[in-house]
Amino acid sequence: MSAFDLDGLTAVVTGASRGIGAAIAGGMLRAGADVIALQRGEVPQELAALAVAQGRRLRQVSADLSSEGSIAVAINDALATGPVDILVNNAGTQIRHDSAAFPLQDFDAVMSVNVRALFQLCQGFGAGMLARGRGKIINLASLLAFQGGLRVPAYAASKGAVAQLTKALCNEWAPRGVNVNAIAPGYFATEMNEALIADEARSESISSRIPAGRWGEAEDIAGAAVFLASPAADYVHGVVLPVDGGWMAR
Fold it and tell me: pTM higher than 0.85 for the full model?
């Protein structure tokens, strides 16, 4: 068996309806895993076609990540057909305001989805992993786990929390056979960054600092996620891995 083979495993990927989440789900399918897409939106046709081509199972479980009750139901639904070996907490939200005028309800909304829901999902799926003594959890952090950003105080705070939560869970769960790691994407050409991309001056300023010379594409994350989910990463614990075209090295 290849060290990167996920054959026979089941991965839950949150927010797989588009962008980075869809790319990660595609990477899991190509590596041999069955995928449960946990999200509000429908599974993209391209992802469904890929599952058929790869001979893998793909199903969608509806969830509203702003609702504790909805998440609990989704976890039970996902586990109803068998154990989950891999959890990828990709889904998140971002709201932009000047910090001096940032509405507290918007701050709470970002923290609820990006941190509280992620922790609930780690608990819900982690329980079975801990009982079996094996499993992989991959959280999506951000470069803003290391930096402050502009006009996104709630998002920066939430992604800093994701990085610290990843390390905290690692300390408790690594001795019990569960790997908890995070990926910190750099600047990616996704819907979440449309406002930055539309700002020509800001976009150029960002591009000029990236050693790779370009913004990331969603597929650039898939390989890192497959690696962290695979046996090749069995001794990788508590890492917050930048996938950023070299941004952090600059």
Answer: yes
